[in-house]
Amino acid sequence: MPHEEPLPFWLVNVPRDQWPAECPDFLKELGDKDRRIIGTPDSEYKKLTWDEVKHLIGIDRVDLFHRVPSELRRYRQFTHRLVKEYGSIMNFIVNERLQWKSMSPRGRAFECDEDIKILYNDWPYGIDDKIVHLVIWTKFELEDDPETGLSTPESHREIDAYVQKTFGSRLKPANFAWFKNWKSLKSVHAVEHFHVMLYDPDPVFMKEITNNDVPMTAKFP
Fold first, then answer.
1. What's the half-sphere exposure (Cβ side, CA atoms, 13 Å) at 66?
2. Regions of the chain where pLDDT drops below 70
3. pTM
């Protein structure tokens, strides 16, 4: 049997009749980690269960959340296009997703609803399909410890109180969890945000809380 060379990472998960002649521009500047993920067949990727998601949040290892390989490929293609069309991912988020005319908060942290917007994570991680991943965007800053990059105790309390108030009346405590990315993991640095994961929430509640939002992954071809 002749030895088969492994596929280049940029051809994995792509139907043979759609193979590009060379590595697409949106994949040329990737780091080793993303190359490794995109070069993994989707069939070999195991989605995280709700218990595994809660465990990673509980031990503050959110760096271990990854997208399904083919979804990471689509995400990289999408963000590459965004930078060309909008100048930066931040411009797209503020102008198209948040549609905020001003970034100045009206009140203190979590005081005014208009300083907060709840949207779906446009490109969620490889997690159980029953898990809904939301991003809570805020006009106000949520303080981080400059040494650790993690939320300060006061900021942690403020976020937790908001999450409990917003989601605690509609879901069991065991069915929701939140985290704030370390500074080094944030893909959008200029707009404050944190993440909430919900297990099998009521779709009507999701429409209500997100104002009928649709994530970009459902719109992007």
1. 16
2. 1-4, 183-189
3. 0.92
